[in-house]
# Entry
Amino acid sequence: MSRTQKVLEQDGLRYMPNFPLFPERASTLAGHVDALYFFLVALTLVFSVAIALGIAILAIRYRKERQPKPIQVEGSLALELTWTIIPLGITMVIFIWAAAIYFYETRPPKGAMEVYAVGKQWMWKFEHVEGQREINTLHVPLGRDVRMIMTSQDVIHSFFVPAFRTKADVLPGRYTSVWFRATKTGRYHLFCAEYCGTQHSGMIGEVVVMDPADYQQWAQSGTDGSLASFGEKAFQQYGCAMCHRADTQGRGPNLVGLYGKQVLLDDGRTLSADETYIRESIMNPGAKIASGFKNIMPTFEGQISEEEMVALVAYVKALGNGMANPPAPVANPDNGVYPVTPNKEPSMAAPNQQKSAPIQPKPSGK
Amino acid sequence: MSDSQTAVHVLKHHFRDMEQQNETASFGMWLFLVTEIMFFGGLFCAYLIYRVLYFDSFAAASSTIDVKWGAINTAVLICSSLTMAMAVHSAALGKRKALVGFLVLTIILGGVFLGIKGKEYYDKFEENHVPGSNYHFIVEPELAHKFHAIDPAKTEIFFSLYFIMTGLHATHMVVGFGLLLWLIIASMKGKFSPGYYSPVEMVGLYWHFVDIVWIWLFPLLYLISRHH
Amino acid sequence: MATAVQPVEKTNYLNADYGIKSWLLTTDHKRIALLYLASVTFFFFIGGFFAMLIRLELLTPAGDLMQADTYNKVFTMHGVIMVFFFLIPSIPAVLGNFLVPIMVGAKDLAFPKINLASWYLYMIGGGLTLYGLINGGLDTGWTFYTPFSTTYSNTNVSIVAIGVFINGFSSIFTGLNFIVTIHRMRAPGLTWSRLPLFLWAHYATAVIMVLGTPVIAITLLLVAAERLLHLGIFDAKLGGDPLLFQHLFWFYSHPAVYIMILPAMGVISELVTCFSRKRVFGYNFVALASIGIAVIGFLVWAHHMFVAGISVYAAMVFSFLSYLVAIPSAIKVFNWTATLYKGSIRFDTPMLYVFGFIGLFTIGGMTGLFLAALGLDVHVTDTYFVVAHFHYIMVGGAIMGYLGGLHFWWPKITGRMYPESWAKLSALLVFVGFNLTFFPQFVVGFLGMPRRYHAYPPEYQILNILSTAGASVLAIGYIFPMIYFAWSLRYGKKAPANPWNAAGLEWTIPSPPSTFNFDETPVVTWEAYNYDEIEETQEAEVVG
# Structure
């Protein structure tokens, strides 16, 4: 039995009523999208019928039998302007309306709960911060903002839930994000919407929206630790703690409080420490060097799976919130191989510090 | 051979007169060069985007190609454009020997260019800077000192673009050789005269274009951040 | 103007020379047009065969007709062949090649040998692509997205990429020829404002061909290079960026859709004027709208990437520009409709295709507004909604234009009339079959059915069945013309020089024309579509 058939025959999967014209609305976004859609359907109907009627009436009224000789009509500037400006006006209205919806759906509200997703040929792997891991089925609570943080292990996929009206491509080497707030319990289709190879049409699943209480219960059950705690284990296992200490003595920057802050790089640029920055710093540390530090971090490309990566990212994020244990101190590493870090701390260090003026690193001695 | 006799021989049946034929040929060649700009343009676009994103890696990779040979090649190619222009001039004046001579010189200079390019490619091959399974970029300490954020994977992208851009350019030069050879043979047979030398002009346009592409490639590929 | 009966053995471009060499080495633009007619028809049938396989598979929710890999190859090759080897060449290479020189009053295109080279490049590219097909096919989708195409696919990516690359030069040469011809070879008196709109449309198309095609050429070259040499330009794992591929690809492929539709719009302008016996309403606006579409069409490519990971602000810019590009098309539709006003309308087959085109293009164009709407596009992109939208434009629009033009100019090209009743029936079948095939796809797309799906949830089945049923009718509508056009070559009524009493230089010369078109270069002193000056000496309705 193929994967697709298994999903379809699962218990409880709701089938659409007899002749549906649109999917269920199960998110706060859905109604907005549908409103615009119906407006556009009406507009299309109006214009198509108008043109069709126009053609029919003119063709019949001026058919050769009734109008043997044509009367040449050159044109009319007034008409041209009218049917240029009015469509332009209408399209601008549509543009603004649609852009407003787009702004809404691309700005996740603060405090949204996060779920990590890794797409790979040909399945979805979900990792909840509480530690639950799922494949192809995503449990989410009703009425809470949920932000998906997603990456791909291989090719480009796309996370698509028709009932929520959201979609975002899932890319290798980057995190992309989509958010929704479910408004109806139930089970909804989840599709991969970017062609990704043999089983592209098998890379489907469902989103299960549960009552908040049920969700809480489900989330706590059967996990052996939160996602961040997995990340902490990986942090120790890969030796990150050797250089990234919770004080100023590490060869690498202190990561406590890093997430979300502005980072000053050694070439003068600043950027915001988001999930993609954290991931890149692990896979490709040489790309962006924090001011005051040397380019000595080894790359972990090929050593860390996307799932471990997601756990590490969750851990680093949690370090900022005080929701995770700071890196355990490591017995003093070998002496003298690397240069000592400068005395001054770069501006991203402690969580409570205001963003200070960029500090020029002193050349380190060796 | 008089001008009008040559003209009658070469006026194609669908043109009104030689003036229309020449202008049409010229228009066609310029338009073709516009398509070539778009063709190389895609590569330049990819190059510029990655250079901005990965500046340090690109600068480091660029510093490992020898400016000296690139500069010599630039001079060689500019000289070949000069000889090409002289060839067109000779054709306009009806000087057949000079025309053939300058065309031959152009090919020779073009050959020198390709020879030097071959040497440069060989050097890169020796240093394992040819992208693929044998690629290996060693970050020398002076390089790491100048450019902090060097990532070997990004240097490979530089070299991928380096080889594709210069390779595409070299391919165009080889096509140019074919065109020049054809012109040499036709000139020796006396096909051109002051009344009809449009093919020489057209090949000249093409050759100048290939030269201009190199004049863009040289600073972009060889001269990133050399002032350090 | 025309005489009643043609002399029996008049020399024309068809019988001027015999033998396969006279065809394969011809530089006569009219013969080259026929070479193209044969080859694009051949590729149309291959692409159509794959379409039939797709629709048969999608009759049932499960993937039971073929394996997933096979299905992926089928829809990929359907797209590659239809886009690159049928839609882009069709009207320009067949009707354009035949008519552009005649419409400007010239004996041939500016560069006849390059014209022939263009056909050979098409055949070589097509041959290589067919070889890729036979050698195991391609499964990346016609869009070749990376890193799937460069690193993960196990199929003939490089072969087909190079086949399409070579074909691109065919396109570039055709465009180059048209631009130079229209600029430099117009007959005395034929000013720009007297040009038939067919020429304005082909000029705009040629500009896009010349500027856009080199970009996809280099992009596909990079894909092949990356695949063969293991480079990392588009692969995130090797430091590259898959989005760069998408930008480069769509920079051409969006203007490419205007290459497909503009020539059809040019055809419609010619047909609607002839069968209304009137100058087109708002000539200047229709002409400038073609140029406007070509220019703005280069500025909207990232509307294919709204969910791909581009920034919100970039998305806003491209959405805005996409609405702007809709306006010139709307202007044309209004002007064509207004052309009917106070005309004297005839309902010959070409006019039926005009009506069909205007209706279907309106719907297809309006659904483009859905896709340009950012918030809505997020839901419908990558679903069957998009599939329906572009088929409305390309099949309901471009192919209708192509068929209408073929019928209109068939007497000029072959010297024969096609059978009118069969032609009208086929036009009706195409219209009905088309709507039944593609309208349900809007619905099933909004419901959420993604594209390129081999199997789908059962609730989408009814709509898929409707679509497949429509496809069968559409297929018949396409097969009939092939049969009766072939029949007409031998048994069709011999056509006079101007069976439609149409305006235009092509109707002043015999059907079929002689090899050099004009005995003497015409001097044009009249405006385009001077139907007030043209008498109806011919019985325009021909019974088949």
